[in-house]
Amino acid sequence: MDLVTFGETLLRLSPPGQERLERATELEFRAAGAESNVAVNAGRLGADTAWLSKLPDSPLGRKVTATLRAQGTEPDVAWSEAGRQGTYYLEHAGEPRGTNVVYDRADAAVTTATPDELATGRIDEADYFYTSGITPALSETLAATTAELLERATEAGTTTALDVNYRAKLWEHEEARDVLETLFPDVDVLVTAERDAEHVLAREGSAGEIGRDLAAEFGFETVVVTRGAEGALAVHDEEVYEQPAFEADTHDAIGTGDAFVGGFLARRVEGGDVPDALAWGAATAALKRTMPGDTALVTREEVEDVLAGDGAAINR
């Protein structure tokens, strides 16, 4: 197994176009979650991936697993008679209104997930284990479970990756920093948006300085700092590698960060070096922006075309 991820997957409900939820008469229905997004994205690019979680034994829970399996990853979940399927509602809009997310995830089955319920043997056998800062924000139980899974992966020799992925609607900066820093000793690869490094992790300086500072303080093997339209950079073996963003016509920006991480990890698990993985991450992220939904349903050929400068070619 190349990559195993752990976290919550929601059902995303969104009205067409830029319609308001309060006036909507129909809703688009998709599965979406940071960790499953990464598993799907990496799986589309050739990695052997699995997603671990806990779901209600209901039609909605089965909708999640059926969707993820069809999109390219293997869901391995603990089924529960208690708890519910979390959802979120998405209103797309341009400025000045802006896109808005409304969560409805309280009492979701996943918030009670413990390691003994999960297929942790998959983590032991994987090359990489990935989760995000969203997961420990959901409950005290999940914070403890995330810590235990990262520790288990470290003991098994599995490379661990964590994306800070801060969500202001889930917790405050200080609480997030306190919890995340307890996880850092068992994290090999840290991914953070530059804004999260500044506001959540309380770092100052350029993106390169932030990456070096974090790597030095916590002993990360690799620190990736994403910078939106300015691209991304990585600090690895005390070297700084920079990657510009690829231009893209944005249809749906939700999930762009997960697409970047999926592309990056897919390339790393097959032996690509850090600069190569950054390029794959940036290309996957650009392609994601052109399609609806949270996942990047792309092919290796499409990523390679973007890297070769042929991304705008007409496919006849």
Question: Could you walk me through the main structural features you see in this protein, from its secondary elements to its overall organization?
Answer:
With 316 residues, this protein is α/β, with parallel strands linked by helices. The chain has a single domain, classed as 3-Layer(aba) Sandwich (UDP-N-acetylmuramoyl-L-alanine:D-glutamate ligase), CATH 3.40.1190. The chain is 37% helix and 22% strand. The protein contains eleven helices and 13 strands. The strands form two sheets. Strands 5-4-1-8-9-10-11-12-13 form a nine-stranded mixed β-sheet, with helices on both faces. α2 links the parallel β4 (49-56) and β5 (74-80). α1 crosses α9, α9 packs antiparallel against α10 (274-288) and α10 (274-288) crosses α11. The longest helix is centred in the middle third of the chain and has 17 residues, at 140-156. The two termini are 35 Å apart. The mean pLDDT is 96.
